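[Q] Does anyone have a clean structure-token version of this?
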Amino acid sequence: MATVTELKAVLKDTLEKKGVLGHLKARIRAEIFNALDDDHEPRPSLSHENLLINELIREYLEFNKYKYTASVLMAESGQPIVPLDRQFLIRELNAFEESKDNSM
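[A] Here you go.
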């Protein structure tokens, strides 16, 4: 019969292989940041450039399924919760969109 220590090791290994442990750690980090975030301390206003940069970072994080990292970015940066319109980003960055896969 396996010991408690062996069972813990197997459980940890299984959760790591499935990627669950990483998600749990990221979720805990995000919740800690949210709990420590002082809503009474005013944030500096976002410049137009930082707003666009943060939006590009958010899009990258969400595309790669880094949703907890994106939630920490939103909490710390003061970026609007509602994403900016993609067409607005394209115009502001003088970019073009590939029609077949909606990538910039």
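[Q] Thanks! Anything notable?
[A] The first helix runs from residue 4 to 18.
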